[in-house]
Each structure stands twice: as structure tokens, then as C-alpha cells.
Design goal:
Blueprint: E1 20-25, H1 32-42, E2 47-48, E3 51-53, E4 67-69, H2 72-80, E5 84-90, E6 93-98, H3 99-107, E7 111-115, H4 118-127, E8 132-137, H5 141-151, H6 156-171, E9 178-181, H7 185-197
Parallel strand pairs: 1-7, 1-8, 2-7, 3-4, 8-9
Antiparallel strand pairs: 3-6, 5-6
The structure holds guanosine-5'-monophosphate.
Length: about 200
């Protein structure tokens, strides 16, 4: 297996400093997606890793943009072929980070952003110690439940599973390098920028 160095070193032309992995984790409904979209718009130099999932697309989601939507058997095949940097099951579906594009971007010196759930974040932290891990918290659990319900496109069963998992994830927030509360959107975005660029 290829060993990937994620420590940033001195930069020179022959050996540009390797990039870095940044992971964003936080409960379903906390607003990670919206924060990510604004962050990427404001910093086009960041590379966002599009994940693979067995979940069905939500209305408006485009294959190859939000996710690569694939079948479970195809997903299992990719796992067998070691094509994921990490993967996990979440609320009945599988999600994984394609290995090759991320490794390539890191070698090219990019900051690579992953938006992944807790188990995947743990796998990445264990494999790549230089990773910056950021956890996005809701202002309160009540507020989170309201946001998940207002999204209105998940079944009651899916909502219940997501709420249970949300509580587990929030309990693990202390494992992360940085915790940011998404109460006021602009403030949260500025805190993320400060963590990434200062
Ligand atoms: P959703 O179905 O709401 O889009 O995503 C459900 C959860 O899966 C979210 O917490 C999201 O961050 C996480 N997720 C998305 N892509 C990946 C991935 O590639 N790996 C892992 N481990 N989690 C992912």
C-alpha cells in the first residue's frame, strides 16, 4: 500500500509541500452542506471530495455533484477492491470516500475537504494523523430536531434513526480538534475560515 505523507514540509519547486486533509463532521441537519457550499464558493482552491453512496438521490441532487449514487452490490465491490479511503454505514445506507482522487490532490498540495460521519472521521484520523478535524454542533438538540423535520424529505423511520445517530455524534464532539456551533451562519463560516487559513 502506498504511504501518504500528510505533514506539511518546507516548500520548494521540486518538492511542493504535500496537502492536508480536513474533515467536517456533525449531526444530520446541522447545516454542514450549506456551510460547505459557501466555503467552497469563497475558496475555489479547496478540493471537495464527492462521496459515493447507496442512498437514493433527494429531489434536486445530481449524480456526480452531491454524491455518486450507486447500488449496494457495486459499493461492496468497491470496498473489496480497496477503493475507499474510508467508508461507513449511516441510517441504513453506505457512504464512502473515493481513495484515488483524494490521494492525488494531496500529493499535488491541495487542501482536501471531506464531509463525513463519525465512524469515517475516526478511520481517517487513525490513518492520517495530520488531519484537521472539525465538528459542527447545533445550537441545541431541539433546534436540530426542528431542522431535520422541516427538511421534510425523509420518512419518520429515517428521521428517528438520524436523531438517534445525531445524539451519538454530538456525544463524540470532544474527539475533534475544533468544535463550531452553527447558530449564526456567517459567524460559523468565519470560524471555519479561521481554522483553515490562520
Ligand atoms: P446524507 O444522507 O444526509 O447526505 O448524509 C448522511 C451522513 O453521511 C452525513 O453525516 C454525511 O456527512 C455522511 N457522509 C457523506 N459522505 C460520506 C462518506 O464518504 N463517508 C462517510 N463515512 N460518511 C459520509
Amino acid at each position: 500500500m502506498q504511504v501518504l505523507s500528510l505533514e506539511s514540509g518546507a516548500t520548494n519547486k521540486e518538492h511542493p509541500s504535500p496537502g492536508k486533509l480536513i474533515i467536517f463532521t456533525g449531526p444530520s441537519g446541522v447545516g454542514k452542506g450549506t456551510l460547505m457550499r459557501s466555503l467552497l464558493q469563497r475558496h475555489p482552491e479547496l478540493y471537495y471530495s464527492v462521496s459515493v453512496t447507496t442512498r437514493l438521490p433527494r429531489p434536486g441532487e445530481i449524480d456526480g455533484k452531491e454524491y455518486y449514487f450507486i447500488s449496494r452490490s457495486k459499493f461492496e465491490q468497491l470496498v473489496q477492491n480497496n477503493e475507499f479511503l474510508e467508508w461507513a454505514e449511516f441510517a441504513g445506507n453506505c457512504y464512502g470516500t473515493p481513495r484515488e482522487p483524494v490521494e492525488r490532490q494531496i500529493r499535488e498540495g491541495k487542501l482536501v475537504v471531506l464531509e463525513i460521519e463519525l465512524e469515517g472521521a475516526r478511520q481517517i484520523r487513525a490513518t492520517f494523523p495530520g488531519t484537521l478535524s472539525i465538528f459542527i454542533l447545533p445550537p441545541s438538540f431541539q433546534e436540530l430536531e426542528k431542522r431535520i423535520r422541516n427538511r421534510g424529505n425523509d420518512s419518520e423511520q429515517a428521521i428517528t434513526r438520524r436523531l438517534a445517530r445525531a445524539q451519538e455524534e454530538i456525544n463524540a464532539a470532544d474527539e475533534f480538534d475544533i468544535r463550531i456551533v452553527n447558530d449564526d451562519f456567517e459567524t460559523a463560516l468565519k470560524s471555519i475560515e479561521a481554522a483553515l487559513f490562520q
